[in-house]
Design brief:
single chain, about 120 residues, mainly beta, 7-stranded mixed beta sheet, 4-stranded antiparallel beta sheet, 11 strands, elongated
Length: about 120
């Protein structure tokens, strides 16, 4: 099995910064895309950013220029640097990883979520 453990959420004032981390562990052969999604109360989960194994990145329009996603393949870890935070960024942030695990099986995994609250 694969576990994703997130850290770094919290409460911050508008204009502030936070850095989220997510470490993947378990029976991992390799990881394809890693990413961050978020879900605000009463809304559907939405893409925030993804990073491929070759470091190609993709961002939601709402976070472009403010958030930066990166990964450390040696540590199976993905990061999300969030700057210039806005109250509308308040949500539970979930880590996601598309993994090849032992025996040639490919599967998708989610973290437990970390709360990010931005006060105005």
């Amino acid at each position: 099995q694969v576990q994703l453990v997130e850290s770094g959420g919290g409460l911050v004032q508008a204009g502030g910064s936070l850095r989220l981390s997510c470490a993947a562990s378990g029976s991992i052969v390799s990881i394809n895309d890693m990413g961050w999604y978020r879900q605000a109360p009463g809304k559907q989960r939405e893409l925030v950013a993804t990073v491929a194994s070759n470091m190609a990145t993709n961002y939601a329009d709402s976070v472009k220029g403010r958030f930066t996603i990166s990964r450390d393949n040696a540590k199976n870890t993905v990061y999300l640097q969030m700057n210039s935070l806005k109250p509308e960024d308040t949500a539970v942030y979930y880590c996601n990883a598309d993994c090849w695990i032992y025996r040639g099986v490919r599967s998708n995994y989610w973290g437990q979520g970390t709360q990010v609250t931005v006060s105005s």
